[in-house]
Amino acid sequence: MNNRHKSGFVTLIGRPNVGKSTLMNSIIGQKIAITSHKPQTTRNRIQTVYTSEEGQIVFVDTPGIHKAKNKLGDYMVNIAERTLKEVDVICWLVEPTNYIGAGEQHIMEQLRKANIPVILVINKIDTVKKEELFGFIDTYRKEMDFDEIVPVSALKKDNTQELVKCIMKYLPYGPAFYDEDTITDQPQRQIVAEMIREKALRTLDEEIPHGIAVTIERMKWRGDIVDIDATIICERDSHKGIIIGKQGAMLKKIGSNARRDIEKMLESKVNLQLWVKVKKDWRDSDFLLKNFGYNPKEYE
Ligand SMILES: Nc1nc2c(ncn2[C@@H]2O[C@H](COP(=O)(O)OP(=O)(O)OP(=O)(O)O)[C@@H](O)[C@H]2O)c(=O)[nH]1
Ligand SMILES: [Mg+2]
Question: Which residues have CB atoms below 5 A from the ion given as ligand 2?
Fold first, then answer.
């Protein structure tokens, strides 16, 4: 084996909505983590694998670090912060701005304690003028001693290869953890559920999306068609009405948008049946959280 081969784990952390999932998808060249313009889209840690001649990077996408308002929020923040103790390199993603708020301060406190190389990734540089960047870099540099500062645009794939090179520099030498065909640790069923949740997030207005979970009841191949039964869980009866919409129009829209993505991923025709169920305040119920795939015990 090539004894100059590198391998290691790299977490992508930051506040909600800074583009962690978009960046991960963009580097591995496949859509595994769902994304949306609404904060708190990612709820679990999602691993993907980037393999090249030089080495293997296992990316760990995490939920945005925020002030939790319910048990689901606690779970999400806990998962994100735990990764800081388990990886070889931390990529901290931030918005291109001079504003450093309490949220950023909270994250920096943990980064200082972590004793792991930290790369500051200033994302969304396509939204600002080039000359403004120096100011942002300066602002952050005054706050903390970063191992590297890399500006990127995850959306436009601008400078993301530079970031990969930079990460490699800090990884230890060692053999690959996964074979080169491995892309993610996420089971197909889980990705399907997430794709449906993404379409619900993107189609519905404010408020409701945060209280949604998706479960897959059935996924069965019938010749070249896959039959999928899935349930969208929401928190209130009034939300159920909105998700279904006038004569089922909203649910139909969510379903057909999701079906397109799922068909692309499974490379097969999909027959998708969606149901809607109410589980009052499930985000504060240990039992229901566990049922919907957010089991705090797994991360203790
Ligand atoms: N203009 C621009 N938008 C971006 C870029 N990267 C991400 N976005 C947008 O920012 C929004 C949030 O992206 P996500 O990847 O879902 O952000 P996240 O950090 O994973 O968010 P959470 O999972 O909620 O913590 C989406 O609307 C993306 O399209 C970028 O480089 N430029
Ligand atoms: Mg995300």
Answer: 20-21, 41-42
